[in-house]
Amino acid sequence: MKKLLWSLTLFGVILIFPVNGVMEYDKMEKFTDFNGTNVYQTENNVKSKAKVTMVGLTLIKNAALRSAVCLDGSPGGYHFHPGSGSGAKNWLVHLEGGGWCSDTESCEYSKRTSHGSSKHMEKKIPFTGILSDKASENPDFYNWNRVKVRYCDGGSFMGDNENKDAKLQFRGKRIWTSVMSDLLSNGMEHAKQGLLSGCSAGGLAAIFQCEDFKSSLMSSTRVKCLSDAGFFVDATDVSGDRSLRQLYTDVIEFQSITNNLPNDCLNRLNPTSCFFPQNLINQVKTPLFILNAAYDSWQIQESLTSKSADPTGSWADCTFNLAKCNESQIMFFQEFRIHMVNLLGGFKEQRKNGVFLNSCFSHCQTESHDTWYSKNSPSVKNKRIAVAVGDWFFERGGAKIIDCAYPCDKTCRNLI
C-alpha cells in the first residue's frame, strides 16, 4: 500500500506531517488526533482580548499503585482551577478528547504524544471557553471549580486492562475513578451543583461516565452532563461500508472494554453498538445535553470520506473545501444530517435533556472562546452555545435547538 501523510485540520488550517514516513492510512486514520483542546498551547495564541489564565498540571498521586496510568505507564493527570464567591461550591469537570487507539501500532504512536503519556503533556494549559474564569467569556460557569482531565488512555476512559507483551496500559477507567476520588476529597463531595462535560472522545466519555458522576455526589446536588462533539453516528460511509463501526470493534477488543460498557445496553445489543451514543443516550437518567455540529468535520473527514472509504480520492477536494463539493456530495452530507436529527428525536422529547445541533462543519465548540461565547460565536435563533447550555442547566428554557440545513447558518466557524 501507499505510504501516506497524516493530515490534521484545526480551525480551517490544514497541517500536513509525515508520520515516520511509513504509516499506511487505514491504520493511521484510526488514531488521528482530533482534540480541539490542543489548538491553544501558549498564552499568546489565545484569541481573546482578556489575559488568559494558565493552569498547571496535577499528576495523580500514587498512580502506579492505583493503576491510574496512561498507555505508557506514566501517571494520569488533570488541571484544576478553584472556584470563588457564589461558585465556590459548584464543580465543572471536563474530559479531554484525543481519538482512540485500536492496535499495537496505533497505541505505540499515542505513547509518544500527550494522548498516551503524561511525559508529553503541557505543564500549563490555558483555560478558555467553558473553562474560562472570566464572566465576559463564560457567564454561567466562570467562578466554579473547573477541572480538565487529561486524556491518555486511547479508550474514552473505559479500559481497565493491560497488554504485557506490548507494554501497554489501558487504564482510562482507573484514571477516571482516581481523579474523581481526589476531587471529592478536595471538596467536590460537598458540591451544590456539578456539570460533567467533555469534547470529542471525551464527549463520548461524558455520556459513559454521566451516571457514575451523578452517584458520586450528594443526592441534593444538581448534576447534569454535557457531551460536545461526542455524538459519533453509526453511519454508512461513501463506499457503503461502516468504517467507524469497525474502528470501535477493534478498540473494544484490543483494550478489552466490553465488561465496562453499560449493562442495560449489553442486554439489548452487541458491544460495538454499545460504544455508539445513539444506543446509550435514551437510557441515561441524569439530564444530558448533546452539543454537536450536524456536519461534524471529524466524522466527515476521518470516517465518512476517509481514504479507506474513498481510495480513488474523488472526495478529497470536497472534504477540505466545501466550495469544491458537487450537488450529489452536498446531498450526502444532508442525508447524514437528517440521520443525526432523527437519532436525537426521542432524546429531545425528554424534558430533562438539552440539544444544540448547528449546521456547521466543525468539531468541539465548548473549549474555544471563539465558538463558546465571543461576539461572533456560532448561534441558532440568536442564541449562542454558552447561553443555550446555561439556559438548560439552570432551567431558564429554550434548550432544544436544531438548526436549519446547510447553508442557512452564516455564524458557523467551519473547519472545512
TrEMBL record:
Keyword Ubl conjugation: no
Top-rank EC class of the record's enzyme: hydrolase
Localization terms from the record: Secreted, Cell wall
EC number assigned by the record: 3.1.1.-
Top-rank taxon, per record: Eukaryota
Signal peptide feature range: 1-21
InterPro entries the record matches: PAE/NOTUM
Keywords from the UniProt entry: Cell wall, Cell wall biogenesis/degradation, Hydrolase, Secreted, Signal
UniProt function note: Hydrolyzes acetyl esters in homogalacturonan regions of pectin. In type I primary cell wall, galacturonic acid residues of pectin can be acetylated at the O-2 and O-3 positions. Decreasing the degree of acetylation of pectin gels in vitro alters their physical properties.
Recorded family membership: Belongs to the pectinacetylesterase family.
Name by which UniProt lists this protein: Pectin acetylesterase
Organism: Brassica rapa subsp. trilocularis
High-level lineage: Eukaryota, Viridiplantae, Streptophyta, Embryophyta, Tracheophyta
Designated gene of the protein: A06p004330.1_BraROA
